[in-house]
């Protein structure tokens, strides 16, 4: 094989860019199909842009139906004919090796996500990359522990079940956490013995292509890569209506795992139904409530609530964007929340002092500003923020509204930006009713010192994850997914393996058995 650059035909750009901004070297820009970096069949490319400036970072090969067909064919061949990841106990070793490589390249990968998605570089290094490696190792430990059950069947029969890999899995991931979303889906699918075709978001394809490189069985500069056989992992950057639609409707894809909007989730379900009735798992939007009771430490509650909605510039599905505060501490909370928002530093995500980077692209930037205008027009009171900031790029100030009613658009629709809606409540029962006044049910937060209240509310709120006196407390062992229109199926935990396995029952006649 050639050099690292030859394998991906990337743009060898690194160092300082316009305005002195750090621009990471981009090595991989082609599709990754059957163990090789290749151009799109059409020869088309698309731009991925730096949200700090709006400038083009790289031109990425644009997958279409023809490329998805090739990737699925490679995945099917690997699954059916001797992929050692699908057929042997090497999965655990390979996944642990891949985790090691993620850690070894953590700085470079965090920089790619920082430049591509506007994510904070420091947090990428200390949270995203270690969490990705942890996810891989968690499921590496599960790879050799997949088994069925012995059955007690009536009559002269022996019965047992097998849990077998479902086959070729299509993975469609969003742009807000490019690294974590990649391994959230790929790790359990690999552990189950499946082969995979990943379509990363068109806004953030860079790290997914790098992970394909790390998984490739080849040698670069005497560095032995992880050893994932050709065809087991394929990465096809492209757009939803073309590459995504081709993957979700493909007759030879056995399952699709998707994280994104409810609108696209519906389209994927329809494609699955109209094609081969493939298995579908969906992690969709959220409009999560943060419920703060009178007995809470106000400073802690303000800090937690600010983190819950402004972290990752609000581009997180579980953002606690509806903050309900009990009337006894409401006024104090509002005052301190505004002060906290004003102290959040918005700026270059590569600056260690920055709290919040830019929205991922111009479309999302304009979408958030549109919702802010809707909030004002519907009668909510803007206390702070609400405006773009900076001379260039897609930066928005942390924004807080009060006088928000449950029926208002900003209280009902997922904004996916740094916008907090502050609301008051009197009783526990009222808080539960308001918290459940949403079509979504992904997460919720509760802040109280009263264990009885915490237990009552956590059971009454219809959400897949409830955090008490904390937020964003994710762990590979903790299942994650939604109620209602936030989707179905679970990521994380051993239960996530169920999406990538199917159960086979085997019944054998034993007519001469002495046990009957």
UniProtKB/TrEMBL annotation:
It catalyses: octanal + NADP(+) + H2O = octanoate + NADPH + 2 H(+). GO terms for molecular function: aldehyde dehydrogenase [NAD(P)+] activity. CDD domains: ALDH_F1-2_Ald2-like. InterPro entries: Ald_DH/histidinol_DH, Ald_DH_C, Ald_DH_CS_CYS, Ald_DH_CS_GLU, Ald_DH_N, Aldehyde_DH_dom. It comes from the Eukaryota. Residues 37-506 form the Aldehyde dehydrogenase domain. Signal peptide: none annotated. The active site is at residue 283. Belongs to the aldehyde dehydrogenase family. PANTHER family: ALDEHYDE DEHYDROGENASE-RELATED. Homotetramer. This is Aldehyde dehydrogenase 1.
